[in-house]
Design goal:
It is a single chain. By secondary structure, the protein is α/β, with parallel strands linked by helices. It folds into 2 domains: about 170 residues, Peroxisomal Thiolase, Chain A, domain 1; about 150 residues, Peroxisomal Thiolase, Chain A, domain 1, CATH 3.40.47.10. Helices cover about 30% and strands about 25% of the residues. It contains 9 helices and 13 strands. The termini are close together. The protein binds oxa(dethia)-CoA. The site of oxa(dethia)-CoA has 21 residues, from helix 2, helix 6 and strand 12.
Length: about 325
Amino acid sequence: MGTVILGTGSCLPKKVVTNLDLEKIVDTSDEWIRTRTGIETRRVGGAGEKTYQIASAAAHEALIMSGLRVDEIDLLIVGTISSHMLMPSCACFVQKEIGAFNAFAYDVNAACSGFLYGLDIGDKQIRADHDAKVLVIGAETLSSRLNWQDRNTCIVFGDGAGAAVLGYSAEEHREVVGVNYFSDGRLWELLYMHNSPSTNPELRVEDNPGVHIVMEGREVFKHAVKAMEDAVLGLLEKTGIAIGDIDLVIPHQANMRILNKVLERLELPKEKVVLNVMKYGNTSAASIPIALDETNRADKLKRGDLVLFCAFGGGFTWGATLLRW
Ligand code: UT7
């Protein structure tokens, strides 16, 4: 008994951008992108598909599945680093859009780990108040935060949103079994995004290249593999669960090579892992809830299944959650 996911939803922008499309913008090739990342296509937002709009569509789907009314939501969290405004939060825009006026709403800035950090906050809220209902969303339009001349980043990221409604279940063996979360600000320079230049000259940051993602891809790669592996092993140790007992793994869809390395090190068979990075690229905070929703709607989750989530992102931020469905 404990926190459970009552409903899931997702929303992907309509426009599909292929690797061949990117060949026309930067010096790259379909072959390079496929072999180095596994990515074949990604979605890019258009009119009516701002971060809060796709987040709201995903939330709407999750609410329908949960069977709850929107006014029953007490807390609304959005993991994002690409809201169209700095203030109000994306969560407040979602609140307005879907009419969740009994909730308090805020964003979590944890890059690709944003959804899982939000899930952890939601779980703790429900542990404190069993009547609480929490809507957690991961949503990004990173297409608005990319330097489209930088082939190191513009081929990797994509847009999308996913959502989950959380509540308490008194049923035996359904709960968040354990979590293992970390961050390390010392490594920020490997993956970051500036703000717009300060209007106070005294606070101006030197060498601000603009509001877009800057990444040392190879270094991020190495840290991501090690961090996710360690977070999962630490979580298994904490919970006393063996890797072989896990039924399904829903990892952050960073890059196929990163995921293959993590799976190899953890000795996890590919059949147990949800992979959709080929279709959507790296959608940062949205990647796990999109993959979760697709898995859920394909009826691949059974009551009592042990589901492992793990993520890694800018900050650095990373960690893992183990949930009994
Ligand atoms: O969600 C967490 C956040 N981020 C990530 O998970 C991303 C982590 N990193 C990665 O996915 C990979 O590091 C990348 C896909 C970004 C890059 O792949 P890589 O295998 O690490 O390539 P690299 O940066 O080591 O570059 C190898 C070569 C370089 O050329 P030289 O110096 O060997 O001549 C790059 O200039 O590949 C070149 N290169 C490209 N070539 C064609 C870099 N990007 C491209 C490109 N197309 N798009």
